[in-house]
Amino acid sequence: MMRAACALLSLLLWACEPASLPPPTIVSVEPEVIPSGSPSVIAVRVDAVRPFSLDYQERSVDPQQLAMTLRIAGHVVNIAFAESDGTLVAPVPEGLSLGEHEIRVTLADGREAVRESAFSVVPPSTLIGGGPGEDGGSSPDGGAGRDELWFFLAGPVEDQVVNVPFKVNIYAVGPGSKAFQRPVTLRASRGTVTTIDSGSFTQGLRVDEISLDQEGPDIYLLVEDARGTRGLSNAFTVRAR
Question: What is the end-to-end Cα distance of the chain in Å, rounded?
């Protein structure tokens, strides 16, 4: 027996008819300004009620019914991480032109949320020296964003074997990268990261030795600090032994 139902991103369940579901909305986009010419990551927080049909005999839900498609500047991108609060973390397509770009989220039943001027791509020189520190703001010494980071980079990461340690380079990118010393967390889009050796940042580079406990394709590593600055690795595969 099939019965219509729906699910919130917060994992609350409600009985409803598909026609009654509200449209999704894009709550926030971070960052709103991205430097050109560098691989970047973006976080899109979505508020959405997602439809599904629950098979009570099989006690299962087809995951395709819960799927979402994320388009950045017209390009379909992989959703590397889908957080419990509705935040979608994804790589920004490389080679985007300067200017403002759209973000579009499409649910499995066709409902969409669109933010037309979601973020801007600007020359790096626009960001260097153009931060709030120019007016004595966020930088500790009142300088022009000298402690500022734009994003992290992790990798490149080659294909790995489950539970076999490997080293990953973590780069801090931005005007404050050389002096950056704050702690970061490292997560995988599938399974658990086990840290064998945790390095410290030296001149913007940190090297960690880790292992992953689950196999599969299209796995990403996510680097994040306490201020919400993020970075993704490339997608890679973890194979069984």
Answer: 41
**Which residues fall within 8 angstroms of residue 152, CB to CB, at 6 or more apart?**
170, 171, 172, 173, 184, 223, 224, 225, 229, 230, 231
Q: Check whether the bond before 22 is cis (ω within 30° of 0).
A: no
To 5 degrees, how large is the angle CA 224–CA 225–CA 228? Answer: 80
Element (H, E) at 126: helix 124-127
Which residues, in sequence order, are CB contacts of 167 under 8 Å at separation 6+? Answer: 207, 208, 209
Domains, the chain? 2-122 (2.60.40.10), 150-239 (2.60.40.10)
pLDDT confidence bin for 158, thresholds 50/70/90: very high
Q: Answer whether 101's CB lies under 8 Å from 92's CB.
A: no
Helix (H, G, I), strand (E, B) or coil at 97: coil
CB neighbour list of residue 135: distance below 8 Å, 6 or more residues apart: none
Rounded-to-integer distance, Cα 231 and Cα 219, Å? 14
- Statement: residue 125 has pLDDT above 90: no
Give the pLDDT confidence of 89-111 residue by residue, as tens digits.
999 999 999 999 999 999 988 99
Half-sphere exposure of 228 (CA within 13 A, CB side): 8
Cβ–Cβ under 8 Å, residues 81 and 189: yes
HSE at residue 48, side-chain half, CA atoms within 13 A, is 31
Q: How confident is the model at residue 10 (pLDDT cuts 50, 70, 90)?
A: very low
